[in-house]
Write a structure and sequence with these properties.
- By secondary structure, the chain is an alpha/beta fold.
- It contains 6 helices and 5 strands; from the N terminus they run E-H-E-H-H-E-H-H-E-H-E.
- Helices cover 53% and strands 13% of the residues.
- Helix 2 packs antiparallel against helix 3 and helix 5 runs parallel beside helix 6.
- It is globular, with a radius of gyration of 15 Å.
- The two termini are 14 Å apart.
Amino acid sequence: MIAYVDSSVLLRLILRQKGALEEWKRVERGVASALVEVECLRTLDRLRLVGMLGESDLVELRETVYRLTASLEIVELSAPVLARASQPLPTTLGTLDAIHLVTALMWRDELEADLVMATHDHALAQAARACGLEAIG
């Protein structure tokens, strides 16, 4: 399976949270926006600042972020992605989710490959389905 992976999927894996993506082991090729590293690292830093992560845990989890993102095909932010994300979409989405959705759609269209959206975000999953992508998570 080829899956576009958003940060919600990675964070549940990294933080060993309940409800992690059941299909993760079936993902043969993972695709993600360059945003995922930033989103994951910012989340870990917020958890550190509110006292939910100690320094040694933070180091280990940051290493996990880098390891997981290195295993993914990272799509850099580009002017065309940002321009398309600023256009109307079929459902209500925030800025980062719009960038994730458009990145997945443009990757799929460019490579003409079957792609599923892996996310634990309901709004992003709904938007992906409205654009013709299967959503898992």
